[in-house]
Amino acid sequence: QLCRLRGSMWAFGARAMAAKAGNSVGGVLPHPHVIGNAFAQHYYKILNESPEDVHKFYHDESILGRKPNSDGTLTSITTMRDINKHFVSTYLKGCSMQIDNVDSQPSHEGGVLVLVSGSFTVPDAMKRRFTQSFFLAPQKGGYFVLNDVLRYIPVEPETPPVKVQVLPLIDYFWV
């Protein structure tokens, strides 16, 4: 089992604990891509099945960026209590989720930057494409989400095909 929720944290097995302590398990540390993929699979599973537990991925100093204001800036949600209220009030429980891409790279002081793209389909609603970025900060025994920004990708209306008139080719070079 690579991932588990424990109290107020998400842990990435024994390798992350050893890495945080400055040791490695068998001389091998998990690659950020492995951490990012395991995190994304577990995060969206919990979001779908138990949104009331998603706040356990965060700490009080975490910042959740959601729904742009009228001026285009994101609303920031902080503290585990407010983050929990946010997730409990969403309608993502039981929706279908599709993760298209998970990209990860090492970051500041052993953290991992994760970028996820995919879609949510809420029952009786249309599919909503999204992109979400996370900064997973190291902590004893694993990682927690320090930063999380979610943006829905607007659906662009389909434009009808444009007919282009093809003119006869004139040979300008041989005149």
From TrEMBL:
Keyword RNA-binding recorded: yes
Coiled coil: none
GO molecular function: mRNA binding
Segments forming domain NTF2: 35-152
This protein's GO CC annotations: cytosol; ribonucleoprotein complex
Entry keywords, A to Z: RNA-binding
Keyword RNA-binding: yes
SUPFAM superfamilies reported for this sequence: NTF2-like
The protein's name in its UniProt record: NTF2 domain-containing protein
